[in-house]
Design a protein that fits this description.
With 395 residues, the protein is α/β, with parallel strands linked by helices. The protein has 2 domains: 266 residues, 3-Layer(aba) Sandwich (Rossmann fold), CATH 3.40.50; 86 residues, formyl-coa transferase, domain 3, CATH 3.30.1540. Helices cover 38% and strands 15% of the residues. Strands 5-2-1-6-7-8 form a 6-stranded parallel beta sheet, with helices on both faces. A 3-stranded antiparallel beta sheet has the order 9-10-11, with helices on one face. A two-stranded antiparallel sheet has the order 3-4. A hairpin with a 2-residue loop joins β3 and β4. α7 crosses α8. The chain is elongated, with a radius of gyration of 25 Å. It starts with 8 loop residues before the first strand and ends with a helix. The mean pLDDT is 95.
């Protein structure tokens, strides 16, 4: 059974996280992804901890299913080696600082002359134009600049970044969306496209109601912990032996919730009649709820809420997540066998298709694992030529 993107060829010039996350999705969906890495050291993330049998778990988790070749893009001979791959590629993905690919002679204008149908996706901190375009950046820098850290945490004196590298990951996902949109357009026009993704743009796009609240009220949103700025009750509640999350998003749920916790009288309290009232008086409502919730254990309350249809859930650690029966049932933990690292578990693809499923089957490649194969089969190089190029430091 073929995967959705089977038959597409992706030339991957990315490293670390945002770009590799995008090409990982494309690989999961069936595209052939050829990852181009520096001959010495490869992708920076190959040096990131932790390691399993000397192989970076960070790298393995993001680069499954890809094929690796080595190439020194700074060498003048590199472009000649890439040209056959560019001609065959449906998609080229890069995440260098704007201007670097042009210095390699591989900017969009030049590449599109070689292959007018290519979808060329660029990811960077700030995009290919604007006053910040030449600034370097990392995930934590973007989380701060985007405003995300200003609304994350317990209070405004202790800004906190999101626990995962959300700026990189969201950029990778938006990049994938842009590529798929450009592919659809190409099916009509026959022409390629340059997709320009900025991490800062992507994080601003995730701000959701924070921007809406500011432009509507003029008040600058501040961190409010695990509460919700527009819905109440929507919080982390302390039980007799731990904490659970509860979300009560409409009036029907509110009345049912008050009933199952034994506080029906709250539904008649003028301070809490509507969601707007409850948000306004949350500081008064929360202790009333928690006094009651502390009576039972987390397990007891989760059972009660499940039976009543009240959205609630535990706060799980990673050991619990990888064994969660729902996550396991949905194939969201996949064990791969890496030739050096051995058995290694990665998150599966969240994209579920009935007829053309995404596949997570192959581990991340060793550095340059497919160099000879790709250069021979797709570039027409002989083994002698490959050995010479390797001796010269080109590959």
């Amino acid at each position: 059974m073929s995967a959705p993107l089977e038959g597409l060829f992706v030339l991957d010039l990315t490293r670390v996280l945002a770009g590799p996350y995008c090409t990982m999705i494309l690989s999961d969906l069936g595209a052939t992804v050829v990852k181009v890495e520096r001959p010495e050291g490869g992708d920076d993330s190959r040096s990131y901890t932790p390691f399993q049998n000397g192989v970076s778990a960070y790298f393995m988790s993001i680069n499954r299913g890809k094929r690796s070749i080595t190439l020194n893009l700074k060498d003048p001979k590199a472009k000649d080696l890439l040209l056959p791959l560019i001609r065959k590629a449906d998609i080229l993905v890069e995440n260098f600082k704007p201007g670097v690919m042009e210095r390699f002679g591989l900017g969009y204008d030049e590449v599109s002359r070689i292959n007018p149908k290519i979808i060329y996706a660029s990811g960077s901190g700030y995009g290919h134009w604007g006053p910040y375009s030449q600034k370097p950046s990392y995930d934590i820098i973007i989380q701060g600049m985007s405003g995300m850290m200003s609304i994350t945490g317990e209070d405004e004196d202790h800004p906190i970044k999101v626990g995962s590298s959300i700026a990189d990951i969201s950029t990778g996902m938006f990049m994938c969306i842009g590529i798929l949109a450009a592919l659809n357009r190409r099916s009509v026009s026959g022409k390629g496209e340059h997709v320009d993704l900025a991490m800062l743009d992507c994080m601003v796009a995730l701000l959701e109601n924070a921007v809406a609240r500011y432009v509507t009220t003029g008040e600058i949103p501040k961190p409010i912990g695990n509460n919700h700025p527009s819905i109440a009750p929507f919080f982390t509640a302390e039980t007799r032996d731990g904490k659970i999350n509860i979300g009560v998003g409409n009036e029907v749920l509110w009345k049912r919730f008050c009933g199952v916790i034994g506080q029906k009288e709250l539904t008649e309290d003028p301070r809490f009649l509507t969601n707007k009232d409850r948000v306004k008086h949350w500081d008064q409502l929360r202790p009333l709820l928690e006094d009651q919730i502390r009576i039972k254990s987390s397990k007891e309350w989760l059972g009660v809420f499940e039976q009543a249809g009240i959205p609630a859930g535990p706060i799980q650690n990673m050991a619990q997540v990888v064994q969660d029966p729902q996550i396991v049932a949905r194939d969201m933990m996949v064990e791969l066998i890496h030739p050096t690292a051995g058995n290694f578990t990665v998150p599966g693809s969240p994209l579920k298709f009935r007829n053309h499923p995404a596949k997570v089957e192959q581990p991340a490649p060793d550095l340059g694992q497919h160099t000879e194969e790709i250069y021979q089969q797709l570039c027409g190089c002989s083994l002698d030529e490959i050995q010479t190029l390797r001796a010269q430091g080109v590959i």
